[in-house]
Write a structure and sequence with these properties.
mainly alpha; 263 residues; single chain; 76% helix; 9 helices; globular
Length: 263
């Protein structure tokens, strides 16, 4: 048999393998938008919330599964950020974001895959790296908001969802501090400030869209969920309810995201 014919099946198999690998690679986004960055912040902060939940209770199966889901989505969306930008500062932020994510991803995946009966591993380094990445995404979004303010008029619901996640994240972080007897008055003040800000913005959204044919329902549902956990947040550190705050906070995020999709 001619050599070319013997090699044909192998070459065909290699072509299929290369095609499969290529299909698994994230498709780079040609444009950078505030909405895309905001959605990455939402995923990232949900990941932080679930890490905190596992630190409180490493047997929390739901938090572990959600953490793995968060990682799967971020492993596609963060690498899909563009690598270049005409603006030098934006280009540096993108480069550092793209270089930081693989380290975070490996560390978080290792934690999510540990046996549930293990002791909760120390997560301070991972949480610091996540906070750093969260800050970079925020700076990128702020630059776009400054350059293209007219493009970002319909992000109020997603911004409210992100505010809820930051509130949940702060509550869970403070709960951990209380468990370790590392109490900080500044952290409690920050929590109450976030809660007031969230409530004011939610009330504003209700007044603005309370009569909307479609958006009114998810806003009312978010308001009901907020009323359910607000007392627990106001009474912190008495009777901490981290799982309730995380669960109903996630409900609020879902309702705000649903309302955003209607516009």
């Amino acid at each position: 048999m001619p050599k070319a014919l013997r090699l044909a099946p192998l070459l065909f198999l290699l072509a299929l393998m290369n095609q499969a690998v290529a299909s698994e690679q994230p498709v780079k986004s040609n444009t950078l938008t505030s909405e895309y960055l905001l959605k990455q912040e939402l995923l990232l902060n949900q990941l932080i919330v679930n890490i905190h939940l596992l630190q409180i209770d490493f047997l929390n199966k739901e938090a572990r599964e959600q953490m793995q889901d968060n990682l799967a989505l971020l492993n596609q969306s963060i690498p899909a950020l563009p690598e270049q930008s005409r603006d030098q500062e934006t280009a540096k932020l993108l480069a550092s974001t793209l270089s930081l994510w693989p380290i975070i991803s490996r560390h978080a995946a290792w934690m999510a895959e540990l046996p549930a009966h293990s002791r909760p591993p120390e997560a301070s380094t991972l949480l610091l790296a996540l906070a750093k990445l969260d800050r970079k995404l925020l700076l990128l979004r702020q630059k776009l908001l400054t350059r293209f303010p007219h493009r970002n008029k319909k992000l109020g619901f997603l911004e409210q969802a992100l505010l809820m996640q930051r509130l949940s994240r702060e509550y869970l972080s403070l709960t951990l501090s209380e468990l370790k007897e590392d109490k900080t008055a500044s952290g409690r003040l920050q929590l109450q400030t976030l809660a007031r800000h969230f409530e004011q913005k939610l009330s504003k959204l209700d007044k603005q869209f309370g009569d909307h044919a479609h958006a009114a329902k998810p806003i009312k549902q978010a308001q009901a969920a907020w009323n359910f956990i607000k007392v627990g947040i106001d009474q912190f550190p008495g009777k901490p309810v981290p799982e309730l705050v995380a669960r109903y906070g996630s409900t609020i995020v879902s309702r705000m995201t649903s309302a955003h999709q209607m516009f």
